[in-house]
Write a structure and sequence with these properties.
The chain has 559 residues and is α+β, with helices and mostly antiparallel strands. It has two domains: 59-94 and 140-273 and 303-332, Fructose-1,6-Bisphosphatase, Chain A, domain 1, CATH 3.30.540.30; 338-559, no CATH class. It is 47% helix and 13% strand. The chain has 22 helices and 13 strands. The strands form five sheets. Strands 6-7-8-10-9 form a five-stranded mixed beta sheet. A hairpin with a 5-residue loop joins strand 4 (164-168) and strand 5. Helix 16 packs antiparallel against helix 17 and helix 16 (410-432) packs across helix 18. The chain is globular. The relative contact order is 0.15. The structure holds zinc ion (ZN). Zinc ion is lined by residues 1-3, 5-7, 9, 384, 388, 415, 418. Zinc ion (ZN) binds next to helix 16.
Length: 559
């Protein structure tokens, strides 16, 4: 939303909080256990409950739109993606196989696989296997027991490296090991697959990107391939592949996790999106914030495209599933070239139909339900992604990039920024007549979207961002809660609250004051008891929280 984000959007990623009572499971798995129940029985019931929060969705696309060569390329891309999936397991939870070998219960095995480890990613990373402790913030990026201070004081060269892990040598000294050495054999295989795909590729830009990305995987030098990816314009297929987001590194938000998306362009929808990119500088100038926070010029070389995703692997498949992607994350490339915003339309539609509509039916005021529609949802998600490119990347206080200044507090605030500035853009474009639709639909659908995303919980950057938004908007009277537990938008106050929150977040980012962001998170990014009770109604009704995918060459019908 990740920043390239993933909208794990609206959707994505995770920073962790412990002890958030508001986000713990409400099914009373431990409090109702009788004395004869072992901890294992209680966890089994927990898994049985929680696996139901996922709705299965098949990832397909219209293969008739592709050339025979493109159909031949897809299985190669999928195999390369599957290698990224294995690498992400190594990063997030390298003991997968030994743990799975001890588990017979199918639901537990499946829940572990969905979560890429024995912690419930959509419930504050609660451990769901007996004897497993809290999820380590370090994942396998840092050695067990290493403190932040120890690394900060050490003389390791690549302390905050994107593409290396920190380990201890035989004397206990901290050293960094580059990914291309640590994972050499897997990366070589993935690289070979991309080279094979490049041989088949008919689009010159795509061919060039595949070749450069293949080189990048085995060298950890992604810059040339990122530029080639931005220069590619006429491709029908795409693969986003490599170590990209840093949500999984909860110690520093520094090191990148492997992932891949295999994508097929939706040309009709892509055309609809193309025109908004040229409007970015104008939208930047209009931001509701003091002048010093909006001096940066957003790139206009950015692209907005819609795709069907046919394969998710690794980080983007863990936790809440990404439905829009804004990349590359490299700030220097962003400033020179802008970003590519990829809207993952089939996944978005699946979330809208299977999750957002049922939530709206339960929680949105019945007279306003008519305003909830897919076009508004699609636009809100799309403008969330565009909004990652707006605002401020460099602090105004001499603290360097916002991302570096805010460290582990960066992701959630950035996701909150993208949500609210996305809405700001929708509002502005509607008023200018550049966007079709009814403001009431955008606002009501946004409200339903907040209620959807707060369910991701405090372990998710998007969850926290939406909690902050909910609380801020509530204080501003942007919506009221009816006595029957439904929410009614006040359209005029919604806009005022949107401007207020935009200003607050950009100012926090521009100041680069990490302590202030932490304070905001503790005070505002929380779920009240009343909201939790309303969210519990969704759980009681069995409304899914997220989707999981049936995917691959068989599902797609290629081989
Ligand atoms: Zn985002």
């Amino acid at each position: 939303m990740k920043n390239i984000s993933k909208l794990k959007l609206v959707i994505t990623g995770c920073v962790m909080l412990t002890g958030m009572a508001a986000c713990t499971n409400q099914n009373g798995t431990s409090t109702t256990a009788t004395k004869t129940d072992s901890a294992t029985d209680s966890l089994q019931r927990y898994v049985n409950d929680r696996i139901g929060i996922y709705e299965k969705v098949k990832l397909t696309t219209n293969l008739n739109e592709l050339t025979p060569k493109e159909r031949e390329i897809l299985p190669l891309l999928i195999q390369a993606a599957q290698i990224m999936d294995e690498l992400f397991w190594k990063q997030a939870y390298p003991k997968r196989d030994s743990l799975l070998s001890t588990i017979k219960d199918e639901k537990t095995r499946s829940f572990l696989t969905i979560n890429y480890g024995p912690w419930d990613r959509l419930n504050g990373d609660k451990p769901f296997i007996a004897g497993i402790g809290a999820k380590p913030d370090a994942a396998s990026f840092y050695p067990p027991g290493m403190t932040k201070e120890e690394l900060e004081k050490s003389d390791v060269k690549d302390k905050m490296g994107l593409y290396s892990v920190i380990q201890r040598d035989s004397t206990g000294k901290l050293v960094s090991v580059p990914y291309h050495i640590l994972y050499a054999s897997e990366l070589q295989k993935a690289s070979n697959l991309l080279k094979q795909a490049a041989l088949l590729a008919e689009d010159a830009g795509f061919k060039n990107y595949l070749n450069l990305r293949a080189d990048a995987l085995v060298s950890d030098n992604y810059t040339a391939s990122d530029y080639a990816w931005m220069d590619m314009k006429t491709n029908n297929l795409d693969i986003i592949i490599g170590p990209i987001e840093n949500y999984e590194d909860k110690l520093f938000n520094a090191r990148a996790s492997y992932e891949a998306y295999v994508l097929v362009k939706d040309k009709v929808w892509s055309k609809r999106l193309a025109k908004y990119v040229s409007m970015l500088p104008q939208l930047q100038e209009g931001l509701p914030v003091d002048a010093k926070y909006k001096k940066e010029k957003p790139g206009t070389d950015s692209e907005l495209n819609a795709y069907d995703v046919i394969y998710y692997a690794g980080d983007c498949n863990a936790g809440s599933k990404t439905i829009a992607v804004n990349l590359p994350n490299d700030e220097i490339i962003q400033q020179k070239k802008g970003t590519r915003r990829s809207q993952l339309k089939n996944a978005m539609k699946a979330k809208f139909d299977k999750i957002l509509i049922p939530i709206a039916n339960e929680l949105i005021d019945k007279d306003q339900l008519q305003y909830v529609n897919f076009d508004s949802f699609f636009s809100n998600v799309m403008f969330h992604e565009v909004a990652h490119g707006l605002g401020i990347k460099q602090t105004v206080t001499g603290k360097g990039f916002v991302k570096e200044a805010l460290q582990e507090q960066y992701s959630w605030l950035e996701e909150g920024k993208a949500d609210v500035l996305g809405l700001y853009m929708v509002t502005g474009l509607l008023k200018k007549g550049e966007l079709e639709g009814d403001l009431k639909s955008f606002y009501t659908t946004y409200m339903a979207g907040i209620l959807r995303s707060v369910r991701f919980g405090a372990a998710s950057a998007h969850g926290k961002a939406n909690m902050q938004c909910f609380n801020f908007f509530k204080e501003q009277g942007a919506f009221v809660r009816n006595a029957n537990g439904t929410y009614k938008v006040d359209f005029a106050k919604f806009e005022t609250a949107m401007n207020g929150l935009s200003k607050l977040i950009i100012t926090l980012q521009g100041n680069g004051d990490k302590a202030a962001v932490e304070k905001t998170q503790k005070e505002k990014a929380v779920i009240s008891a009343e909201l939790q009770a309303d969210l519990n109604r969704l759980t009681e009704k069995g409304i899914p929280v997220d989707i999981v995918f049936e995917q691959g060459v068989d599902v797609l019908g290629v081989k």
